[in-house]
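Exam revision sheet. Question 4 asks you to relate a sequence to its structure. Input first:
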Amino acid sequence: MKLFATKEVGLFARAIERLLLPASCVACRDLLKVDATLPVCDECKQGLQSNSAARCLRCGARFPELSHADRVLNDCRFCRHLELPFASTVCIGNYEGPLRQLVLRLKNRGHEPLAIQFGRWMGLEWNRLHPETGPIPDIVTPVSVHWLRRIRRGYNVAELLSEGVGRTIHGKPLWTRTLKTLRPTKKQGTLSTLQRFENVKNCFVVRTPQVVTGKNVLLVDDVMTSGATAIQAARVLLRSGAAAVHLAIVARGVGGRS
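Answer key, structure tokens:
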């Protein structure tokens, strides 16, 4: 009873704060415009997403030193050795600076609306890179977490991101919890690259293979660094009959950042 009372008090306090205090940027705390679609000011938003930078369409890594016209197509120094199973990857930016701070916020309770908004932003980025004449996913599905971690955290960030993505993409694809995690895994951020791949080896299964058979699947997660988790999940989807797997992530960890 005490636990629920504490939770209710916290929710009530946040509601009062939102009512009495003006909205502020979750990255720099500056005041937001009244019509802001994301809880991020224009200056921070510009720093989060740099569309003028080239990026790898396979893994989503961005290269500020290159011009947008020189975009890297399916071959970059961060993923050419990984044999990625994704048909394409959509992301907002690299896992650094303000974006990294925001992703860390997403992992904590109380920021569920922010996760859904980021999902919508990811969906808009998909629409920009894949116009209506391009590939349209049949299914949007999150990378799953084990039920023990879900209880400890209270929710799965990827599920909320998927909800936002699904609301925004052309054609409004089906949003479903397709994957299941069979066993608890260690936190990927605490492991080396080789340990990360071993950590998630054979940990995913598709709940109902018939759902993905012959379908284009858009897999959603918050961050990809080594690629171990997303690669394992995508391979399971493909083995279960998916026609193709695309990936949507908030941030791409590169250059040793995890």
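Marking note for examiners. The chain has nine helices and nine strands.
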